[in-house]
Amino acid sequence: MDTGEDFGPWLARQLKLARMTQTQLADAADVTRAAVSAWITGRATPRSETIERVALALGTDLATVHTRTTDTQAGLPVTWYHRPGYHDGGRDGGNAAAFAFDADVQVLARETCQNSLDERLAANGRPVRVRYTLHELTGEALDAFRKAILWDDLHPHYRAVSQAASHQKVGRVVDAGVRDMFEKGRLVLLRVDDYNASGLTGDDYGDGKFAAVVRRQLESLKSGRGAGGSYGLGKATLWATSALGMVLINSTLSVPHEGRTERRLIGRLELPWRSVDGRGYAGPAWLGRPDPDTEGADVARSWWADDKTVESLHLTRDSDEPGTSFLIVGAHDVASLDQSTSGASGDDEDGAADDGTRDIRAMHRRLVEALGRDFWAAMTGGGSRLPLLETSVRTLRNGEIVLAEEKVDPGLTQPSRTRALRAFYDGTTVDRLTEAGQVALRTASLRLPHLGGRPGTHGTHQAVLLVTDAEDADGAPNEVHYLRGNRMTIKRARVGDLPLGVTAFQAVLLAGHAAGESAPFAEEAEEFLRAAEPPEHDRWGQTEELTLRWSHSAHRRISTLTTEVNTGVRNLVVKPKRSGSQESAKLRKALTVPRKSAAPKRGSAQALPELDGLDASIGADGEWRITAEVKLPRVDELPAMTPVVLLDVRSGSRPKLDWAELVAVDGCEIEDGVLRFTPRARRAVFRGATDVASHPVRTALTRLVLELRAGKGSEA
Fold first, then answer.
1. What b/e readout covers 375-388, taking b as 16+ CB neighbours within 10 angstroms?
2. 73, 254, 255, 438 from 389: Cα distances, Å
């Protein structure tokens, strides 16, 4: 007997599919019932001449029986099974999980790549490879694909959804997808393949990865300790990205199921409730082989397909390496309409108007952009650490290359941060930035609370902060990327309160397992931060899980960490000020901010506090952000002073701006906008931000004047 599934389990499944008993096979093959039983239990195998009669009885060819790499076509054929409507009359207008995410290929890339990272086979040390293939079908190729997915059987269901589209949001999306396919004669397929991943292992209905992805909602069965996902919602992005609500799946398993590993196929359709030929259907449907073990064989299960079937469904994988291929049928990218994607014409090659949601070139670019932005760290190696991930994107039309496969290079998409991470892995970081290209390292403390809300600190995790010079290709400067175990960027945050003229930088915070397996309390930090992420996994903050497992104030530990990170960054990038330095002179000239305070004339020669140092920058919302140092005279009693911020003009009175924020830092207190100084202090520092609503013109076009005025009044 040749390679493939063991003969006994394979034969037992074929008898179920053909609804044939062991006795019936024995009669057809001219053997005893005991002989068939021995084959199925593995106690014996049939002779070559008997195999010919077995193949004839099963209605298949000799090769299929010899290789046993697929099922015979005898008995129950592959078909669509639609879940019947609820007996109590309840109706679903679609899968609510899909509304957790936008129909956005960048969101899809983030969620699917995260899932592949979580399922990486880590034991061999190799990265998981994820490839995105955009494939537009037209003409005969489209007709052949519709035939392969049994479109004629599905059409009545899509027609019913279209007729009710005005009452259902999901129905309107599906109706637009069907009309686009027929009126414009095209269909966009988006396939996501991963290799060196676990695959959809487990039974069709039991507790396993297959059932968690294909059958269930809000269930997450991840393999890794540092898994990114935890809600079981990420898979919904696959169906959300399909205008037809259809995803086809081909999985190569890392652990055999039914003695097999290759070409395990299933399809799932997500539609709203509908009525077809007087019968109500609840919503989802599955493409598979009717399960002979269920009543009336009225449930579809996965099946082991042959190469020809896999090819017709555009699900052929490159190798027998474990992993899964997801084919999104009718892919669209609604979020791209809100993006100014350069080079996207909005028209197809024939000049037909297009809303842009199915522009395969724009989708290609947006996928590459998202992968480089969110997974640059997972694709970066150095020292003894290998990359966790490799990604690429390619685009086809009817099998012909439109855009060649593009491997995402983190060194090109995030050069500064990649340099910083490699320096950490290579052990070449420094304590202080003194030359261009250096990477400085600091630590930031995450004080982990006790489970159950008990007071105190369970332990302190030292996260790793890396800072280096920014390059133009990095995108927005002066940001921190926050990462944990799977090295996906969880959040990006700009560092505020920076003085004008600071050298542009990029920073990375590595927390949990990303800080190193030997980092104190790395496991606990990983668990805590994972619980602090919402379904989108795009920030750390207060979540229901964090509140239930720790306390309602546990998120404040993260806020404290963020504050320490920002302080650490400023200490590294802001150079200590020297009196009379060229930097100070340049700043004063650019901003025309007087170094001395302006005060009204008084009858006595009382010594007054005066401005001695200023830093100013423009904030993210266009506000002026100011840090001022005040020199205090040596007197027993200091008068109250009011800081006033004005716009410098060539003639006329200077327009006064309002304060949105005024905060005492050192040597003073602020009450109702008035500075009151600490007795015997020699210096005072305060910080403020202007109210953008009080700006008469755009901030970048203005010059600033800051004055200290004696007393509580702010009028000149």
1. bbbbbbbbeeeebb
2. 39, 18, 22, 26
Residue 332 buriedness (CB in 10 A; 0-12 / 13-18 / 19+)? buried
Find the mean pLDDT for residues 198-224: 79
pLDDT: which is higher, 292 or 714: 292
Q: Please enumerate, as own/partner, the contacts of 621-624 that have beta carbons within 8 Å and a separation of 24 or more.
A: 621/692, 622/692, 622/695, 622/698, 622/699, 622/700, 623/660, 623/689, 623/690, 623/691, 623/692, 623/699, 624/657, 624/689, 624/690, 624/699, 624/704
Please give the residue that has the higher pLDDT: either 222 or 643.
643
Q: What is the 8-class DSSP label of residue 69?
A: S
The Cα–Cα gap between 98 and 37 comes to 48
In the sheet with 505-510, reading across from the earlier edge strand, the strands are 439-449, 457-469, 505-510, 479-483, 489-494
**Length of the chain in terms of residues written:** 716
Segment 477-530, tens digit of pLDDT: 999 999 999 899 999 999 988 877 788 999 999 999 999 888 999 999 999 999
Looking at the chain, the whole-number percentage of residues with pLDDT higher than 70 is: 85
Q: How far is CA 19 from the centre of its chain?
A: 46
Those residues with Cβ within 8 angstroms of residue 367's Cβ, 6 or more apart along the chain or in another chain: 105, 106, 109, 132, 134, 393
What sign results for the dihedral spanned by CA atoms 332, 336, 338, 341? negative
Evaluate if residue 327 carries a pLDDT over 60: yes
In eight-state DSSP terms, residue 597 is P
**Structure-token match 């400085």, residue found:** 440
Provide Rg for the chain, Cα atoms: 33
Which uninterrupted H or E stretch holds 249? strand 242-252
Report whether 175 contacts 305 (CB < 8 A).
no
- CA distances, 376 to each of 27, 384, 426 (Å): 63, 18, 17
> What is the identity of the amino acid at 555?
H
Return the pLDDT at 99. Answer: 54
Q: Report residue 620's pLDDT band, with 50, 70 and 90 as the boundaries.
A: confident
- Separation CA 619–CA 688 (nearest Å): 11
- Torsions phi, psi of 88, nearest 5? -90, 5
User: Tokens in use for 52?
Assistant: 């010919």
Query: Can you read off the two tokens belonging to residue 352?
Result: 């037909």
Q: How far apart are CA 367 and CA 363, in angstroms?
A: 6
Secondary structure (3-state) at 428 = coil
Return the closest-CA partner of residue 616 out of 629, 607, 625, 608.
625
Q: Which of 291, 324, 320, 294 is nearest to 307 (CA)?
A: 320
Contact 204, 328 (CB under 8 A): no
Residue 712 has pLDDT above 70, yes or no: no
The pLDDT confidence band at residue 403, using thresholds 50, 70 and 90, is very high
pLDDT: is 40 or 334 the higher one? 40
Question: Could you write out the DSSP letters of every residue in 14-66?
Answer: HHHHTT--HHHHHHHHT--HHHHHHHHHTS----HHHHHHHHHHHT--HHHHH
- Asked if residue 643 lies in contact with residue 674, where contact means CB atoms within 8 angstroms, the answer is no
Structural tokens at position 603: 């009858």
Band the pLDDT of 392: cuts 50, 70, 90: very high
Q: Given this model, what pLDDT does residue 295 score? A: 67
**Residue 231: which pLDDT band, with cuts at 50, 70 and 90?**
very low
Distance from C-alpha of 51 to C-alpha of 39, rounded to nearest angstrom: 11
